Each structure stands twice: as C-alpha cells, then as structure tokens.
Amino acid sequence: MRTILLFVAGAIAIYLAATPTTAIPANIDDPIVQDLGSWAVMEHVKHANDGIKFNKVVSGVQTFPGLGYNFDLIIDAWNRDGKDGKYEAKVYLRDWMDKRTLLAFKLCYGEFRMQEIDAKSVPMSTIF
C-alpha cells in the first residue's frame, strides 16, 4: 500500500513538473488583478521606501504552474516626484494557502530595468 501511494505521489510530481504551462492574458478589468497590482506596489514600497504610488494595472499575463498562479503584471504608477512610469511586477499567488509572494519588481526603462528585490510571503487578506 505504501509503495503504491509513493508511486502515485511521484507520478503526480513528475506530471506537474513536466506539464508545460500556458500563458493567458490577465483580465486587467478584474478587481482581483488590480488588487494584486496595488499590493505589489505596496509590498515594493515596504522594502524600497521609494514612494511609488499605484495607478492601475495596464497589462498582464497569467500562468498556472500547478500549485498556484503566476502573474506578470505591467503597472502604471507615479514616482515620488509625480512622474508617471511603468513597472513590471511578478507575483506568485497560492490561493490554497492564502498567500501572495512578490517575486520581482522592476522599473521598465526600455532596455534598462531596476534590480529585482526579494520579498517575503504575506497573508492574503482581500482576494477571493
């Protein structure tokens, strides 16, 4: 019995690791996507303390790698001087654990981008 369970668990793990994920456009009109963008900016500001203010998510891609959702979002925001800018945020959402993780936050400057920052997982309070 244990051998069968171990085999099944291994087969599921291999399937999830080998299954390609398909990227689909994120629905930027969805309040959940806008909330993720706002949260990503707030989380970035907690670590960088650079005074960025969220405006809106302007585009994004969503993938489902198996145990959560990856969102690659382009966010329109204002910097401390009030200048408009585009930022790229990578957010990993584990709805079954009620957590979000900010994987990266970068200023989109053509070829130039800000360095990625690390962020800790925080409880999800307003999503779903």
UniProtKB/TrEMBL annotation:
<protein>
    <recommendedName>
        <fullName>Cystatin domain-containing protein</fullName>
    </recommendedName>
</protein>
<keyword id="KW-0646">Protease inhibitor</keyword>
<dbReference type="Pfam" id="PF16845">
    <property type="entry name" value="SQAPI"/>
</dbReference>
<keyword id="KW-0789">Thiol protease inhibitor</keyword>
<dbReference type="InterPro" id="IPR000010">
    <property type="entry name" value="Cystatin_dom"/>
</dbReference>
<feature type="signal peptide">
    <location>
        <begin position="1"/>
        <end position="23"/>
    </location>
</feature>
<dbReference type="GO" id="GO:0004869">
    <property type="term" value="F:cysteine-type endopeptidase inhibitor activity"/>
</dbReference>
<dbReference type="InterPro" id="IPR027214">
    <property type="entry name" value="Cystatin"/>
</dbReference>
<feature type="domain" description="Cystatin">
    <location>
        <begin position="27"/>
        <end position="107"/>
    </location>
</feature>
<keyword id="KW-0732">Signal</keyword>
<dbReference type="InterPro" id="IPR046350">
    <property type="entry name" value="Cystatin_sf"/>
</dbReference>
<comment type="similarity">
    <text>Belongs to the cystatin family. Phytocystatin subfamily.</text>
</comment>
